[in-house]
Design a protein that fits this description.
The protein is an alpha/beta fold and 264 residues long. The chain has helices at residues 3-12, 16-25, 50-60, 87-100, 121-136, 168-171, 187-195, 210-219, 252-256; strands at residues 40-44, 73-79, 140-143, 158-161, 178-184, 202-206, 224-227. The chain has one domain: Aldehyde Dehydrogenase, Chain A, domain 2 (3-Layer(aba) Sandwich), CATH 3.40.309. The protein has nine helices and seven strands; from the N terminus they run ααβαβααββαβαβαβα.
C-alpha cells in the first residue's frame, strides 16, 4: 500500500478499497466534501425526564419521512438501570411504541403524513431482509399496528429491543423505518458502543446534566452532535461526518474551504 493510500486510510478511517478509489480519482482528496452511508446514534440517560424523552422522539420523528434522509436515529443507547425490574428500559421502549403507533403512514406529498413510501422494491427487500435477520438473531421485534397502502413499497414503523453489537441491525445501515435499541451500564461503555461503527455522521445525547453533555460531545466520533434535541441545523455551522460518513464539511466558513483559494 502506497504512502498516499496509507494516509487516506489513516486520516479518514475508510476501507482500503474506498480509499484507493479516492486516490485514483481525486488528486486533492482533502478538498472534497462528500457523504456516504451513515448510521447515527442517540444516547438516552434515564435521569432525563420521560417527558423530554417523548419530546425527543416527537421532534426527531424517528424516521424523518420516507427514511431516505441520511441523518437518522437508527440506534438508541439506553442506560441499563433498574435492570432486575427492567423498568427504565421497558418504560422508554413503551414510550417509543406509543409514539410510533401515532405515526401517520401514507402519501409523502400530504403535509399530514409522517412516513412515506420506501423508494424502491430493492430497498424494501433489503429492509425486510435485515429485519428478518434481527429476529433470527434473537432480537425482539415490534411493529406499529398501522394500515399500509396497497400500492407502492411500504414498511411499518418497527422497533427492535434486546439488540447487541453483534446483531446485523446494529452494525449495518438499514435505511428504513426501523429502530434498534441497545443498552449500556456506564457512560464510558455508551461511548464505546456508539463509536463502534464505521459511520459517524451524527449523534444525540439526552440528559439533564450539562457536564455529561460536554463530556459525551468530546467522546463521540460524529460530525454533528445534538443535546436534548435532534435534526436541528444552523446554516452557519459546518456539517459533515467521520470515517465512512464522509470527509470535508458543508455549511459555515468551513464549507467554503473547498471552493476558494487563499491569495498569496
Amino acid at each position: 500500500m502506497s504512502n498516499d493510500l496509507q494516509t487516506i486510510v489513516k486520516e479518514s478511517g475508510l476501507e482500503q478499497s474506498k480509499a484507493k478509489f479516492i486516490l485514483e480519482n481525486f488528486q486533492n482528496y482533502f478538498e472534497l466534501a462528500d457523504e456516504w452511508a451513515k448510521k447515527a446514534k442517540t444516547i438516552v440517560v434515564t435521569n432525563a425526564s420521560q417527558k423530554a424523552d417523548m419530546e425527543m422522539a416527537r421532534v426527531g420523528r424517528l424516521f424523518l419521512r420516507e427514511k431516505r434522509i441520511a441523518v437518522e436515529k437508527s440506534r438508541k443507547e439506553l442506560k441499563e438501570q433498574a435492570l432486575r425490574e427492567g423498568k427504565a428500559i421497558d418504560g422508554i421502549a413503551n414510550v417509543l411504541k406509543a409514539l410510533m403507533s401515532k405515526i401517520r403512514v401514507g402519501d409523502p406529498l400530504d403535509k399530514n403524513t409522517d412516513l412515506g413510501a420506501i423508494n424502491s422494491a430493492t430497498q424494501l427487500a433489503k429492509i425486510r431482509e435485515l429485519s428478518q435477520s434481527g429476529e433470527s438473531e434473537g432480537a425482539q421485534i415490534w411493529s406499529a399496528p398501522c394500515e399500509l397502502p396497497s400500492k407502492g413499497f411500504w414498511f411499518a414503523p418497527t422497533v427492535f429491543t434486546g439488540v447487541t453489537q453483534a446483531h446485523r441491525i446494529a452494525r449495518e445501515e438499514i435505511f428504513g423505518p426501523v429502530l434498534s435499541v441497545l443498552t449500556f451500564r456506564t457512560p464510558q461503555e455508551a461511548m464505546e458502543k456508539a463509536n463502534n461503527t464505521p459511520f459517524g455522521l451524527s449523534a444525540g445525547v439526552w440528559t439533564d446534566k450539562g457536564s455529561r453533555i460536554l463530556w459525551a460531545s468530546n467522546q463521540l466520533k460524529a460530525g454533528v452532535i445534538w443535546a436534548n434535541t435532534f435534526n436541528k441545523f444552523d446554516p452557519a455551522s459546518p456539517f459533515g461526518g467521520y470515517k465512512e460518513s464522509g470527509w470535508g464539511r458543508e455549511g459555515g466558513r468551513h464549507g467554503l474551504a473547498a471552493y476558494i483559494k487563499g491569495a498569496h
